[in-house]
What does this fold into?
Amino acid sequence: MGSKTTSSKGFPGFPDGRLELTAIPSLFFSELLPVIDHRGELKLTLYVLWAVSHAEEHFPVFRHCDFLQDALLLESLKAPGLAPEEALDDALERCLARGVLLKVVPEDGKILYLLNSKRGRATLEAIRAGTWEGQFTAMDLRVERPTVFTLYEQNIGPLTPMVAERLRDAENAFPGGWIEEAMEIAVANNVRRWRYIEAILDRWQTEGKDERKDRGDSETARRRYVSGRFADFWDS
It folds into this structure.
């Protein structure tokens, strides 16, 4: 299935706790999976199924620019000798030829893509008739951010039951995004310890969090987290 590549970052496994799920029709596994032999086609098929599963109101209708705006999708479609847009166009053509996707060209001449399902076919006919009142779909795989458990395993170390419990407590105690930012500072300063991250969070909570100073991407910020109350976390 295309050329073999090796990822530089391993997958640490699905974290503990409730995970958001994507509905995949059983026919995908019995009818499509055995015959799809191109990596880009497989990835784009799964992407569209994911988009349909997570659509909140209107059935997803994609423009070419909607696919292009998802940087993570383009990254996943990379292929030797092809520019990102060319790899996308190749995958789109394969999905159309397979019958997974439908396309329609409204009066403005811009091609629209839909999943070839009952609702997709009905939406296509409404577009052709000029009665469609839905919205175009701009999806972003990065919206589904990894949990703090995944971030910890990817950046700090193994997730023990004790650390997992402290992470849960921290999620309830601190505003969203703080834990991730504190982990970024820990990684930037090469102090991969939960107590260090916890100390940063406690400081923000007691003294206030100034994003201009606490980004950890300057020498001033680095010194702030390697001295004073944080000095104990450094190896002398």
Notes: The radius of gyration is 23 Å. The longest strand covers residues 101-104. The longest helix spans residues 39-54.
